Amino acid sequence: MLSAIAGSPDLAPSPEKPLILLAPMEGLLDATLRDVLTRAGGIDRCVSEFIRITDTLLPERAFVRVVPELLNGSLTRAGVPVRPQLLGSDPVCLAENAARLAGLAPEGIDLNFGCPARTVNQSRGGAVLLDEPELVGRIVSAVRRAVPAHVPVSAKMRLGYQDDLRAEECALAIAEAGASELVVHARTKAHGYRPPAYWERIADLRERLYGRIAPRLVANGEIWTVEDARRCQAVSGCPDLMIGRGMVTHPGLALAIRSQGDVVWAQIVPWLRDFWDQVSARVERRHRAGRLKQWLGSLRRHYPQAGQAFDTLRLVHDPEVIGAWLDAQCLGVVPAGAADEVEPVIC
């Protein structure tokens, strides 16, 4: 049952500066988009899409395929750390794979207890494990023991599977098993991504963990604007935030939250061109147009120009035509209302 308190307890703040993390988003926020978004600034760390662990000890190339940043010191080209995320339900297999992953010198290792996808949950992965707090604790403990002490182990969870009745129990299991950081997506699996996010329940968890050897708690869910970020921090009591869809739609959101500026459309256009080049190098020809439109479809929530671009390219599938259109935009884009003040963008 979801509580309805209006604020958060007066708990101690995070010991360091507030973090802003880029969330994992399966099927969207991969290494290509991480590379582009981290150029905007304001992001402290990324978490990768999940790497599924079943009953096999994966080869190193399987980790690198999902997290190519491992070949660059676990950093994006902009120098932002990337923490690989593992998903599974077998503590022994997860520990063995975490140990192998640790040999690639990742920034840390994250564990997924939040994925709401039906196929994942049917395979006993992600949010369904929140019905088994004891197993969640054993997974975290096994991974923590399997990797060197200098490698951080963190976790991400939702409030629960069908309800949030065991949220405190799961958070305690994760904390007591040795995780140094816990991201809480303030919805259950049953809620999916429907608003609202129940940030007040993160405050409940924070109050329960406070005074123990507790992980750094990070709030996640339904943060689209600076105002959302401020309300989330106030209601959850967590200065630290993880943002996914909000950052994809508004690449300058982290900067804006920090009051360090923003990202205008003229900056994004050359990033679209580079995004397209990377997609063209990594994705089958028939899927390339869809990847670009997917990001444009998100960007139009914040940038009207992205909506115009999406409408222009909606029925275009030929990569050469799309590439030529992007080239033309790079050579001639001028933000609306700023024709006399901004030089054309040269990619």
From the structure above, extract its key features.
13% strand, disordered C terminus, single chain, alpha/beta, globular, 347 residues
Give structural notes.
- The protein has helices at 31-37, 60-66, 91-102, 118-122, 133-146, 167-176, 199-209, 226-236, 245-249, 253-257, 265-282, 285-299, 304-313, 319-332, and strands spanning 20-22, 45-52, 82-87, 109-113, 153-160, 181-188, 216-220, 241-243.
- With 347 residues, it is α/β, with parallel strands linked by helices.
- The chain has an eight-stranded parallel barrel with strand order 1-2-3-4-5-6-7-8, surrounded by six helices.
- α1 (31-37) runs antiparallel to α11.
- The model is unreliable at 1-14 and 333-347 (pLDDT under 50).
